[in-house]
Prior knowledge:
Structural class of chain A: mainly alpha
Number of strands of chain B: 4
Oligomer: heterodimer
Strand content of chain B: under 5%
Distance between the termini of chain B: 51 Å
Largest sheet of chain B: 2 strands, antiparallel
Number of strands of chain A: 6
Number of helices of chain A: 14
Radius of gyration of chain B: 20 Å
Amino acid sequence: MFDGMTAETLARMQFAFTVSFHIIFPAFSIGVASFLAVLNGLWLQTRDDTYLTLFNYWKKIFAVAFGMGVVSGIVMSYQFGTNWSVFSDKTGPVLGPLMAYEVLSAFFLEAGFLGIMLFGRERVGDKLHMFATAMVAFGTLMSATWILSVNSWMQTPAGYSINDLGQFVPEDWWQIVFNPSFPYRLVHMVLAAYLTTALVVGGVGGLHLLRNRTDAPARRMFSMAMWMLIVVAPLQILAGDLHGINTLEHQPAKVMAMEGHYESHPDGAPLILFGIPNPGEKRIDYALQIPQVSSLILKHEWGASLDGLDTIPDENEPPVSIVFWSFRVMVGLGFAMLGLGAWAAWRRYRGRLYDTPMLHRAAMVMGPTGFVAVLAGWITTEVGRQPFTVYGLLRTGDSLAPVAAPAVAASLLAFILVYFFVFGAGTFYLLRMMNKPAGTVHLGLKDGPIRTAGITPIMQTDSDAVPGE
Amino acid sequence: MFELSFIWAGIIAFAVLTYVILDGFDLGVGILFPLADGEREKAMMMNSVAPIWDGNETWLVMGGGGLFAVFPLAYSVVMPALYMPIILMLLALIFRGVAFEYRWRTERWKPIWDIAFFGGSIVAAFMQGIALGALVQGIEVADRAYAGGWWDWLSLFSILTGLAVVVGYALLGATWIILKTEGSLQRQMQNLAWWLGVGTLGFIGIVSIMTPFQDPEYFSRWLNLPGSIFSVLIPGAVLAAAWALFTGLNAGKDGQPFLAAISIFVLCFIGIGISFYPNIVPPSLTIAEAAAPDKSLRFALVGTVVLVPMILAYTAYAYWVFRGKIDPAEGYH
């Protein structure tokens, strides 16, 4: 299956595969954790049972997604060593402590309070349970903060020196953690996580509104999701724009690939809306473009000059086609999200939010697009960083462990099989849980009557299992 | 002696030991899972660890992440050397971790996730034992990189340490279930723990006798003065812990067998530490050589001394919240 590939290619495929799977779960659980904290808080304040119903409904979905995130994340934390050990040796002094802080300040917090959030309401009371829920949400945000600091440092390294062993040595921790692209990347990612969750919640709400537009939990979640969308989607477009300007300053080659600028444009660059990158000829075929607009977006100035990939040595050029396409997918979906949010805001203004089946159907279709946009964005930034692991300083080819291609191929195959089986099953369970209306979900075993000794409590109240299935 | 790198070696050792004890008993529960009689006992066994397993496993990330942070050279040498056992362990932990949620979401596939829970637990435990054995028998290093072959980790010795860890984790799991349950499941585990105790001690004996022959350094460490003092002290303490285990089981005590089993693990861990010191990757990479620059060690240490006590405090609180015998009617599924 992987004949003739080098260990480097295989290790890159393995990392791309495992990290692409992994990022989906945190992107969702960051948002749902905050959503749960908000729902729990609103319930404590208003004692409106719809909030509690929604909390218990999304809590179970969160638990499944979080479990998948944990197990796929543990793989990531060891893969640096197994496949990229030279990278680990060289960057460990700088990146290692940041990752250690992620473990200490985020993973333990999430894991320590997750049990109380899921199982402990009756044991600790409402207030401590609220605290535990808030700690889980806070932990997911801390985790995002540290790992984006790590990733940003690899994109825009700062605050280091290089010793005679070729290792990056920390000089200024402030500069390392708050490296030039970190604030933009963090904001962009956290907003993406909130958008992703809002789209999923809105999709589920839309589904149940289509079935029964009087369903109170469905109305509540749809309404909350659409509010979130109309507030966050514009913010995200603004954050993305600022992030793009930052990237132009620090990683110009990436922006050239995103925009498809093979040539320099001294008198203002056009915005290429669509086209087909032709890496052999180094041009964009069939380009549909608007003059000057790329300069306007990237430099906020009409007619500003923009360099193209012709100013970059060939061996430093990122793979243009992938970056070009993934960027367009991300941006296109971002505007579609804004459109959905605006449509919902207009229907709400007309008092028709729950009576517009077309809108509910659109929300359902848009439900999974947050994940697609996150993946596309991730591909844009990571492939755009190539051919470096530490931008401009450490090449991907020089980061590899002394691994043999067959070993990497075998483990890659194993990861592919296991991930599709395990996470395929998990996705199936998640969709089945979301397919049930929130109002009918059993809250826990204690809520189910124990009728006869013959029926064990677990089997009897296992509400998610379809009988006879 | 009191250099930062040695403080850090102590912290990493503490994280690994904490991992071994905490995830050890919940992996042990998974290893014993097929012995449960019926759905009720299965639910009791799984629910005894469901609220805490995630926190337990985080210590594994702490061990790996900590090694990357403060001993990047050791991390970059050990991981390729143990490539296959580590990948297999990770895959096993995937199956095991998702089983906690998945088995309640389906009727038709429940047996599959039960097998995933058991299989994932036993393979993860076995691979951890193999990794330990491979580390003890030594890892070849040249030019700051792993220089051995792809199958070096596989030997009679590492297979024995793998089996030792499986049996030892099962002992921890059995004594944990004794602590958390009552009735027929508890009685079954009391009988089983007795045999698992015998098995664990047997493996400890075999591995201990073989260890000094893995490396001449170990041999002189254990059999010449002053190391030979430990050669008397440690086995003596292990025997005392074993005595506490068996008397506790015979007297039907709830907590004593679990504490005794933990003590056996702590003593073995100290024994391994005596063999290793001052190496971090035997036979040739020392703690000082593998350490990151002092600036990295100091930065990471500041947060660690603040955060680890907090972690221990809220972890203890979480255990306190879920204290007592398992109520079979409890759960959230």
